[in-house]
Each structure stands twice: as structure tokens, then as C-alpha cells.
Specification:
little secondary structure
């Protein structure tokens, strides 16, 4: 993980860092896609379920025009 991000994620991370990309609407759907142009940097992708406290399985596909480093954190 990048040194500036501590796990587990805490409330302060979300208070002081705004979202830079998200799906257009938070809807109950099996598939969501989006296209985003992001500045170089480190990002956290947080998949969520429509229902709070419900576990889910996810497939995340990332397409990039440039070389990208991706790592899973838990």
C-alpha cells in the first residue's frame, strides 16, 4: 500500500479527502461501469453493496491507456 494510506481505512481519510470519481447513481444493479480521467496518483476503489452490512462478490476491471500499478489491500 502507499505509505500515506493506513489500513484499516479510518473516518478521517474520508473527512479530509473528497471522492474524485463515482458511479452516476447509486442503484441496485449487478453491473456498473464508468469512464473516468484521473490525475496521476494513488487511488482507493471501494466496491459496495446496495444494502448496508451485506457481503458481496465483485469483479473489478480496470482499463488504462498507460501502465498502471494495481494492488489489492484487505
Amino acid at each position: 500500500t502507499p505509505e500515506s494510506i493506513e489500513l484499516p481505512l479510518n473516518k478521517e481519510l474520508f473527512q479530509y479527502n473528497s471522492s474524485c470519481a463515482r458511479s452516476a447513481a447509486f442503484i441496485n444493479s449487478r453491473e456498473i461501469s464508468g469512464r473516468f480521467k484521473l490525475n496521476p496518483g494513488s487511488y482507493i476503489i471501494i466496491p459496495t453493496t446496495f444494502e448496508p452490512e451485506k457481503d458481496g462478490d465483485y469483479i473489478l476491471r480496470i482499463f488504462s491507456e498507460q501502465m498502471t500499478k494495481v494492488e489489492q489491500v484487505s
